[in-house]
Amino acid sequence: MRGSVVVAGVGHTTFGAHEGRSTVSMHAEAIRGALADAGVEKDAVDALFVKFPTSAFEFMYGQKVAEAVGLQPRIGGVWDQGGAANIAMMSFAALAIEAGQCEIAVVTFADNPKTGSRGAIAKSIGADDVFGWFGAAAGYAMIARRHMAEWGTTADQLGAVAINARANGAANPRAQLRKPLTIEGYRDARSVVAPLRRDDCCLVSDGGAAVVLMSAARARALGVAAPVPILGFGQGQTSWNVELRPDLTSTCAAVSAKSAFAMAGLAPKDIDVAQFYDCFTIVPIMTLEDYGFAPRGQGGAYMASEGSGLDRSLPMNTSGGLLSETGMPGMQLVIEAVRQMRGTADLQVKNARSAIVSNQGGIMHTHSTLILGQPE
């Protein structure tokens, strides 16, 4: 399937606070923008894949979104893989296109935890409350602490992840948080759940984002301006909660990346830019290791030695990621990768010909990977 399906259009709302707006209205705005970017009329869309809003699940939510936008999809549905769902939905859409089950698919996500309800991200997951863990930060703090104990990862190495994201976000006019961070500022920030400080934790954001997928042949026939080919994708999942896992310092990101690299016919050395899910700073460090960009246990040292911004050997999270652009789970990373491949990003990586994107959900329960190439 390498290159047989393309991202034809992208769209999103502004990121931050959308007081009084429904998630459905943000879906509509994002989808409208993505269809306009692709140059496609909504009547041509015959598949709709929707990530449910974490803040408030609604029954038959996908149909509500379709009705609001005026779509009559043949196939689709609402997915729950946490932050891994967006790339996962794109892979399901690509498979459906390849199988002839649909021709043009929209993949979309919207949520409003900043002005709506944060209850879903504040409660315990599984039996975590037995251990006194409430909220996502507690589980990630346990994983970070284990990585420190096992591999010698330091707080300043976690801080290097935040500094990189904030440096890039400061140059992004669409970013929710456009304020650079120094190592001194990172060290002085309050503790959330040790060892995680405030700047180790992603933003809480309202917003919506969507992409349009179709076959490469269909894109050529329609004259799509800059269709970005999907070179590879993969998924990996674990069904163990944190306290039950035999290994806390490796995840199913390795499984997901193996599938994506094999489909793309590429290796880590072939990747020019990365957009790594960074809900907490420990996550990109472990993703670098699981994807093969850094040796096991050396992701923190790699981050600290590489500096920040476009000067890195592997520019990462060039729009600011979840730590600076928006805390929305994952679709913004896909959109930034598309812009990098089109050559239209605000912090454009020179001569970038391949981009890798990671999405991750739960407390490192689910993972999905996407590799994109340049438009023809």
Concise synopsis of the structure shown:
The protein has about 375 residues and is an alpha/beta fold. It has helices at about 25-40, 60-70, 85-100, 120, 135-150, 155-170, 185-190, 215-220, 255-265, 280-290, 300-305, 320-325, 330-340, and strands spanning about 5-10, 45-50, 75-80, 105-110, 190-195, 195, 205-215, 230-235, 275, 355-360, 365-375.
Give an account of the 3D structure.
The model has no long low-confidence stretch (mean pLDDT 95). Helix content is 36%, strand content 18%. Helix 1 crosses helix 2 (61-69), helix 6 (155-170) crosses helix 11 (299-306) and helix 9 (253-264) crosses helix 10 (282-291). The strands form two sheets. A nine-stranded mixed sheet has the order 3-2-4-7-1-8-11-10-9, sandwiched between helices. The protein has a two-stranded antiparallel ribbon with strand order 5-6. The chain is built from 13 helices and eleven strands. Helix 2 links the parallel strand 2 (47-51) and strand 3. It has two domains: 5-117 and 205-229, Thiolase/Chalcone synthase (Peroxisomal Thiolase, Chain A, domain 1, 3-Layer(aba) Sandwich), CATH 3.40.47; 131-200 and 231-373, Thiolase/Chalcone synthase (Peroxisomal Thiolase, Chain A, domain 1, 3-Layer(aba) Sandwich), CATH 3.40.47. It is an alpha/beta fold and 376 residues long.
